[in-house]
Amino acid sequence: MFGPTSPSPYKFPIHTATHPEIKRWKSDFLKLKKMGLCCYTNVLCYGIGIIAIVFIVKMVKKMLLERKLARWNNTPKDVVILHGFPAAKVVPNASPFVLKVLTFLRMANINYKLDRKDVFGPKGKTPWISLNGEHTADSQMIIDYLRKKFEKSLNGSYSEEHLAIGTAVRVMLEEHAFWGVALDRFIFSGTVTQIMKANPIYLWTLKFVAGFIVRRSANAHGIGRHSEKEIVQLVSKDIRTVSKILGNKKFILGDEPCEDDCAIFGMLAQFLWGLPGSPYEKLVNGELTNIKEYCMRMKEKFYADWDYCLAK
Asked: Which 8-state DSSP code applies to residue 176?
């Protein structure tokens, strides 16, 4: 047993501040500290650089948008300028939302002009309109704005209950069935190259770029995570639902069209004419004849100049 003053039988190396191993540890620690500081500095610089680039891009986009809008601040009084995609070879517009607004303008007898150059406006959306120095984006917001501006009512004597049915059909088509159009046109069948009239290189570039955006957006929505077969089944069910609601009526609610017929026609026209060879075209031309008859009825009533409206 060792007492407090008894020498230890074990010999340990005595380390001091001058010991070579301690010096090496200190040197290594200082190097690591310096490397860490450099790393943090680099990360900070990269972060500041990225923030600066994002800020500059946003400022440039804002400046370009302001210039674009300024070009349309002085337009003929009370004439709506409808900005959107060019006409297609099979429908007056391959965008169901542009066709929706175009149909509303015709149903409401509102003077309008088409602009096919400045496709995207506020919010980065199409269509958008310019009217008396004011600019509005989003097809439904456009219709709401024009209805109030020109005091137009296209809903006749339909009850609130009936109008709610029309709205439900519209929302189903625009928020769900729409993805059947986009995915078939840019991903599954690539029919955009068949229905649009443009330089082939431009069309294939559009198919690639728009296809990437559509795929990413469809995945974010959720429907894009399904297989092609599953998506076709889901969208076909939507079209069948519209067919059942339409029944033997001339328009979605009865003998006269309502405001929501603009959007419903805008979407169904794509299935009938805008997706050649697709399962949806075959469905509408075969089993769901009342959908085809509905589209023909809308075409005859509001597009007597249909052939003139198509891309030549």
From this structure: I
